Structures are given as structure tokens and as C-alpha cells.
Automatic annotation (TrEMBL):
InterPro entries named among the record's database cross-references: Glyc_kinase_flavodox-like_fold, Glycerate_kinase, Glycerate_kinase_RE-like, Glycerate_kinase_sf
NCBIfam families assigned to the protein according to its UniProt record, in alphabetical order: glycerate kinase
Top-rank taxon, per record: Bacteria
Descriptive protein name: Glycerate kinase
Lineage per the UniProt record: Bacteria, Pseudomonadati, Bacteroidota, Cytophagia, Cytophagales
């Protein structure tokens, strides 16, 4: 049996490679006779940088940048294609991982640090930039990123606005005079982990604001801020971004970059699987095992495990999914690309404890999957 192991990273716990290795260790412990091919998947969030740089045998660069609350940190981006293409993860500079449990504040959080990574890539002489925008701490419509590249945002008193979403409610004018001229000849692709629009009940504020620390009042303020940003962009540049597919990714960063930098927005999982020739890897597979920290309705919006499962099922390859957690009311009929789903938890424990034991739980569950595959089929006649 040839098994392809293609999981997502588990947030705040394990990288995609670590998840895959834990699953492989469990299968080996079951004594199943199999060969394995490990290929972590990403959807534009954490893991994309490692996957693409390793696949294309690129190099890494470290840069001093600012985190979502504008504190100094060091972030990493990749160079591939003989240094002509940069691979950037927004989460490296502007992700929730940089904030403690009490710090998330989407009204103030900024993508400025990601803009610094873009500037560093331009300094390296790249001609193309891929920006994966998952796992952000921000809902600023990408304005912080743009500020780092020279875009200036003004209120009605002609005062420059500070970074962060809160100030966008006062936005009256956008000035592109100082925008880095090197962007004119640099192709930018935004690799999106979701297909949500910028505004509305399925938009950046209402769907993702609460995940980033916004209460009900803050969600309304964020929606108003992004609405004003969209209106100003339409007035000045005659571009409509309110309902742009994928525009709500990373708190509207995708929409902002599409409007100001003419960035191309692409569905993350589909893009990454295509660029890494994942379909060819499945040609000789007998089983695909994928995994995700939280299997829920958002998985169906284009997350990595859904993408690999869909591709495998189209090739008539069975799919098993392991999940860190699942909602009690999850309707598994909607997950028809998965032949079987196994939660890895052992019981009601605090999230911190579950995260700490992720590798152990993955290995144990994968071992049980392997033992299940070893069970003989009962052929006795009645």
C-alpha cells in the first residue's frame, strides 16, 4: 500500500511536516505494510512558505519588521526561481501567533510589517511576489502593508491616518504619489485561504473579526471602516472591491492589494497544489491521509485538507481525515470527499493541554487507523 500523507499545519502547535511525521509514526507502529510519501499542504496560511521554498529549492531571508501591534520582531521570506520570485507569508509579520491570548485587537492591528517584507523582497530585486494571507491578526484592508510601501491615507482635515483599521472610518483620500515605483514592474499574486468577500455578513469583519478578538461592537466598527475604505477606492480609482471573491482574506488585505497594486487573487489550496504538481504524486497512491486542527464549515471554503481530498476523490483514491477538533453539530454529509473522519482528542481537556499533546494524539489515532486497515474482511457465509 502506498500512502500519501498531506496534512495542514495545526495552529499554535505543529507545522505541516511535524503533523505528517506524527501520522507516519503512528501508521508504522500499527505494522501496516506500506510505503509513505509526506507532502504537507497549505492554503495560503502558515506552511505555504516552507512548502514552496522547499519544493523549488529556494533560500530564506530574515528581515527586521514590526508585528501587528508595531513592535520589533524578525520575520522570514523566501527567494525562489533564481531569486526572481519572493514567497511571503503574511503571518510571518502580521499573524495572530505574535500576540498573547489577551492582546488581539483587530481595530489597532496592522499589516505594516508585511509591507516591510514586500519592500525587502523588492530590495532583493525580485520580479514577482507571492503573498499568502492566511492566519492574520488584522482587519485593516491591507492598508498597513500599503503604508509601508509609500501609500498615504488622509482624513478630511488632510491629516495622515495612523496604521490600523479604527482610523479608516475617517478616511477621505488616498495618495499614491510616494508608492514604491518598483511595484509597477513587479507581478503580485495574493494566495488566499478563503473565498469570502470584503463586506457583508460573510465578509472580513463579521466572519473573521471575532476570531481576531473583536466583540460585537468592534465587528460593527470594522465593517464601517472597511465599507468606507471600499467607497473611497471606488470614488478615486473606479474599482469595486466590496464583493470581490477572496477579497475578505486576511481582514480585507486581498481586496486592498487588488485595488491599489492590481494584485491577482487566487484560491490558495488550488494554486499551491498546481504549482507543486500534487496531482502527479497521487497517481500511484492507494490512500490519502490528511489532517487539520479544526475541521468545520470553513474547511469547505477551500482549506488545504478539502482541496487534497477533492483531488484524491476525483482520482478514486480513498481519503481519511484526522481532526484536532470538530463542532458537535457538524454535518459530515457536507464532507463527502472524506471517506472517514477521526477526531484525535481523548476527552474534555483545556485547549492548551490539547495543543501540547497534539503529536501524541495524532500518532495514537493514526496507529488505530492502520490497525483498522489490517482487519480482515469477514467472508463467512450465513
Amino acid at each position: 500500500m502506498h500512502v500519501v500523507i498531506s496534512p495542514n499545519a495545526f495552529k499554535h502547535s505543529l507545522s505541516g511536516l511535524e503533523v505528517a511525521n506524527a501520522i507516519k509514526a503512528g501508521l508504522e507502529e500499527s505494522n501496516i505494510d506500506a510505503t509513505y510519501f509526506i507532502f504537507p499542504v497549505a492554503d495560503g496560511g502558515e506552511g505555504m512558505l516552507e512548502i514552496l521554498v522547499n519544493h523549488w529549492q529556494g533560500t530564506y531571508r530574515q528581515v527586521a519588521v514590526l508585528d501587528p501591534l508595531l513592535r520589533p520582531i524578525t520575520a522570514t521570506f523566501g527567494l525562489v526561481n533564481q531569486g526572481k520570485t519572493a514567497v511571503i507569508e503574511l503571518a510571518q509579520a502580521s499573524g495572530l501567533k505574535h500576540l498573547t491570548s489577551t492582546e488581539p485587537d483587530p481595530l489597532q492591528a496592522s499589516t505594516y510589517g508585511t509591507g516591510q517584507l514586500v519592500k525587502a523582497a523588492l530590495d532583493a530585486g525580485v520580479q514577482e511576489i507571492l503573498i499568502g494571507v492566511g492566519n492574520s491578526a488584522t482587519v485593516d484592508g491591507g492598508t498597513g502593508l500599503l503604508q509601508a510601501l509609500g501609500v498615504q491615507f488622509y482624513d478630511e482635515q488632510d491629516q495622515q491616518l495612523p496604521p490600523g483599521a479604527a482610523s479608516l472610518r475617517q478616511l477621505a483620500r488616498i495618495d499614491l504619489t510616494e508608492l514604491d515605483s518598483r511595484l509597477e514592474t513587479c507581478e503580485i499574486t495574493v494566495v488566499c485561504d478563503v473565498d469570502n468577500p470584503l463586506l457583508g455578513p460573510k465578509g472580513a469583519a463579521f466572519v473573521f473579526g471575532p476570531q481576531k478578538g473583536a466583540d460585537e461592537k468592534a465587528v460593527v466598527l470594522l465593517e464601517n471602516a472597511l465599507t468606507n475604505l471600499a467607497q473611497i477606492i471606488q470614488q478615486q480609482f473606479n474599482k469595486q472591491i466590496a464583493h470581490l471573491p477572496h477579497g475578505g482574506a486576511a481582514g480585507g488585505t486581498a481586496a486592498g492589494l487588488a485595488a491599489i497594486l492590481n494584485a491577482k487573487l487566487v484560491p490558495g489550496t488550488e494554486y499551491i497544489l498546481q504549482k507543486t504538481n500534487f496531482r502527479e504524486l497521487l497517481n500511484n497512491a492507494d490512500l490519502l491521509i490528511t489532517a487539520e486542527g479544526g475541521l468545520d464549515e470553513q474547511t469547505l471554503a477551500g482549506k488545504g485538507p478539502y482541496g487534497v481530498a477533492k483531488l484524491a476523490k476525483n482520482l478514486k483514491i480513498p481519503v481519511v481525515a484526522l481532526a484536532g477538533q470538530m463542532p458537535v453539530d457538524l454535518n459530515l454529509k457536507d464532507f463527502h470527499y472524506f471517506d472517514a473522519v477521526f477526531p484525535i482528542g481523548t476527552g474534555p481537556v483545556p485547549l492548551t493541554e490539547a495543543i501540547a499533546h497534539t503529536a501524541v494524539n495524532l500518532k495514537r489515532t493514526a496507529c488505530q487507523v492502520g490497525k483498522l486497515l489490517l482487519l480482515p474482511v469477514n467472508t463467512r457465509k450465513t
